[in-house]
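Explain this protein:
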Amino acid sequence: MLLALAATWTLGNSKASAASTAPSLAAQATTAAAPGQQQSALLDARSKGAPDAPITVFEVSDFQCPYCKKFSEETLPYLEREYIQSGKVRFVFLNLPLTQRHPNAAAAHEFAMCAADQDRFWPIHDLLFRYQGDWARLPDPGPYFESLADSASLDRGSLDRCLNSGAVRWLIQQEAQTNARAGIRSTPSFIIERGLLAGFAPIETWRPILDSLFAEKTGR
């Protein structure tokens, strides 16, 4: 877990430079879908913003991570209003459940990915973070997650089949392994074009980074 103000921004030859890391993570998320899943659909369901936006941001996250919750509630709404909705940024969520520290994270990610299979990832994303304090310490969070399914208008039959089959478990594991090979072992971490932003950061940290990249890419 990173300290709240420990965000760092590194470029170029950082341990997670976009020249190699971001494309490999994107390819992994796109092509590693388990049998029976639409290969690109689960990535699209975890994306916000225009596919042709000049900047792509990959968030590597853990649903049981307190600072991921903090980012989701305090920074992401500003990013959405100022950069995603305006067409400047495409934002993509990637899985990194840190199960040694967060024992319920794997179940939460599997639940969210099954929601993604119904194109309901973002409502579940928001609910998981909003109620993190309720489910994080439960011996078995499954029944609590099922109560969230109704709030997000999920089809319970499809959800149960997905969860019982383990169809998305392999994809989550593959993304986590790819993140680890890229040197990303803490959450939240953000791959922004050719740099890595590690840890929670307020919108005041994000604005100069994104504004500079946007000007560089568009000449505006």
Summary: The beta strands are 8-11, 47-48, 55-61, 89-95, 189-192, 195-198. The longest strand covers residues 55-61. The chain has a mean pLDDT of 85. The radius of gyration is 17 Å.
